[in-house]
């Protein structure tokens, strides 16, 4: 312990006891324990954030790679579910207008 012997440790404990008094020592120990728990929780939170950031970066890279693959395939990233129609695409040869452009007669 950094060159501290038993007698030095006892002297330090006696000085601490004289400075804080026996009534305040349990409160001091409790507050030190709470501080240690808070510090431990915060460092764990920082590690978890770093892991989440790394996971987000990996998924962003995967998404970019997928988009590049779609662009190279020639669909321009306009992947639609099967059977979904865009505005103005014909259904069985009949042109369909955009629902926003349809006029109601009446």
Automatic annotation (TrEMBL):
Protein name: Sec-independent protein translocase protein TatA
Residue ranges with Low complexity bias: 56-66, 78-90
Predominant cellular place of this UniProt entry's protein: membrane
GO cellular component terms, A-Z: TAT protein transport complex
Keyword Protein transport: yes
Function: Part of the twin-arginine translocation (Tat) system that transports large folded proteins containing a characteristic twin-arginine motif in their signal peptide across membranes. TatA could form the protein-conducting channel of the Tat system.
GO biological process: protein transport by the Tat complex
Family: Belongs to the TatA/E family.
Subcellular location: Cell membrane
Subunit structure, as described in the record: The Tat system comprises two distinct complexes: a TatABC complex, containing multiple copies of TatA, TatB and TatC subunits, and a separate TatA complex, containing only TatA subunits. Substrates initially bind to the TatABC complex, which probably triggers association of the separate TatA complex to form the active translocon.
Gene source species: Actinomadura spongiicola
Keywords from the UniProt entry: Cell membrane, Membrane, Protein transport, Translocation, Transmembrane, Transmembrane helix, Transport
GO molecular function: protein transmembrane transporter activity
HAMAP family (UniProt xref): TatA_E (MF_00236)
Gene name of the encoded protein: tatA
């Amino acid at each position: 312990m950094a060159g501290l012997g038993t007698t030095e440790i006892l002297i330090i404990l006696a000085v601490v006891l004289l400075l804080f008094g026996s009534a305040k020592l349990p409160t001091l120990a409790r507050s030190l324990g709470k501080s240690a728990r808070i510090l431990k929780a915060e460092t764990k939170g920082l590690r978890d954030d770093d892991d989440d950031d790394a996971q987000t970066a990996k998924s962003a890279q995967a998404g970019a790679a997928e988009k590049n693959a779609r662009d190279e395939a020639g669909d321009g990233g306009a992947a639609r579910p099967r059977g979904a129609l865009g505005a103005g695409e014909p259904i069985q040869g009949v042109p369909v207008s955009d629902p926003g452009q349809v006029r109601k007669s009446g």
